[in-house]
Design brief:
With 328 residues, this protein is α/β, with parallel strands linked by helices. Strands 3, 4, 5, 6, 7, 14 and 15 form a seven-stranded mixed β-sheet that branches. Strands 10-9-8-11-12-13 form a six-stranded parallel β-sheet, with helices on both faces. It has a two-stranded antiparallel ribbon with strand order 1-2. It has ten helices and 15 strands. The two termini are 17 Å apart. α3 packs across α9.
């Protein structure tokens, strides 16, 4: 099947990406083809384009990990979806394309009343947040979570999901505008890390009791600072390393507070592992989307041909919410 795609041959700055014509194959057992209406832009896309996050050997080299659109073809024996169904989906690469192959079990229905661009901003973000905040981090109602990078796509979704399930939310972000944005999403405390010490602010807010969970995407020297704000028996989940992969950790504090520290990346997980996340989202989160309890967090919508501009915008750090490419 011939289609337009965004490709690059040499890693580098956003302008290495070019719109060209390529081809995708027919769906194999357990797969579907989606005619893409919109594709989300995410951090892993940036790192892959820069050359620091190569795709798995069995994945498409085309950028893009989440889409929304219409089922265009299904594998023989597929019963979950039919041609014409409107879905959003986690994809193993290939999202910056008019058509994409993905696994049937990684598709979810477009929430009632949502536009395709809004639905395209869901999968990568919600799979990541649900898996790390709830499945790995074990967030419970009435607990307090600290979310770094609260104004981005992951952060804004993490605020909304944590609040929807009864948690208190503290976030860090880089400007007064972003503080206001995070508070509008429900954050109980938004800390401008450029002007305030988040350790001091968190301990003051919690009356030195600390938080039960930290969702960290910064790494480096934030790790020890996170340990300082965690409560006894607290949990820390690492999902990115924006300031560096290496950290000097106070193991004594980790031991004394009995901290559980875990982390994950989404893309290398197996088809079955991602399907398990999708099943929990379908059961526990998608009803809230349909009822309007959770809202889309779009910052910008750009045509596919302007993928370079979308990457530049994301790298600038100015965005509040998700950036999406439109194809239809």
């Amino acid at each position: 099947m011939r289609c337009q795609q965004i490709v690059f041959t040499t890693p580098g700055l956003p302008d290495v990406m070019q719109l060209t014509t390529g081809e995708i194959g027919a769906p194999q057992a357990g797969q579907v083809v989606i005619k893409v209406a919109a594709a989300g832009v995410n951090g892993p896309d940036i790192y892959q384009r820069q050359g620091s996050y190569p795709p798995p050997a069995d994945a498409s080299p085309i950028l893009g990990l989440e889409v929304a659109g219409e089922i265009a073809a299904v594998a023989d024996g597929e019963t979950r979806w039919q041609v014409g169904d409107k879905v959003c989906a986690l994809v193993p690469g290939g999202g910056y394309s008019e058509y994409v192959l993905t696994w049937s079990a990684h598709c979810l229905p477009v929430p009632h009343g949502w536009r395709m661009s809004e639905a395209a901003a869901l999968p990568e973000t919600y799979f990541t947040v649900w898996h790390n905040l709830f499945m790995r981090g074990g967030l419970q109602a009435d607990e307090t979570v600290l979310i770094h990078g609260g104004s981005g796509g992951i952060g804004s979704s993490a605020i909304s999901l944590a609040k929807a399930f009864g948690a208190k939310v503290i976030v860090t972000c880089g400007s007064a505008d972003k503080q206001a944005y995070c508070e509008s999403l429900g954050a109980d405390l938004a800390i401008n890390y450029r002007e305030q010490d988040f350790v001091e602010q968190v301990n003051q807010f919690t009356q030195n009791n600390g938080v039960q969970l930290v969702l960290d995407m910064i790494g480096a020297d934030y790790i020890n600072r996170n340990l300082k704000v965690l409560a006894q028996d607290g949990r820390m989940v690492s999902i990115a390393c924006r300031q560096g992969r290496m950290a000097e950790v106070d193991v004594g504090m980790l031991m004394f507070k009995r901290i559980l520290w875990t982390g994950s990346t989404l893309r290398p997980q197996t088809v079955a592992q991602k399907a398990a996340i999708a099943a929990q989202l379908a059961e526990r989160v998608w009803p809230l989307l349909a009822q309007g309890q959770l809202k889309p967090h779009l910052y910008a919508e750009l045509p596919l041909a302007q993928a370079a501009k979308a990457h530049q915008l994301m790298e600038s750090g100015e965005h509040q919410g998700k950036i999406v490419l439109q194809l239809g």
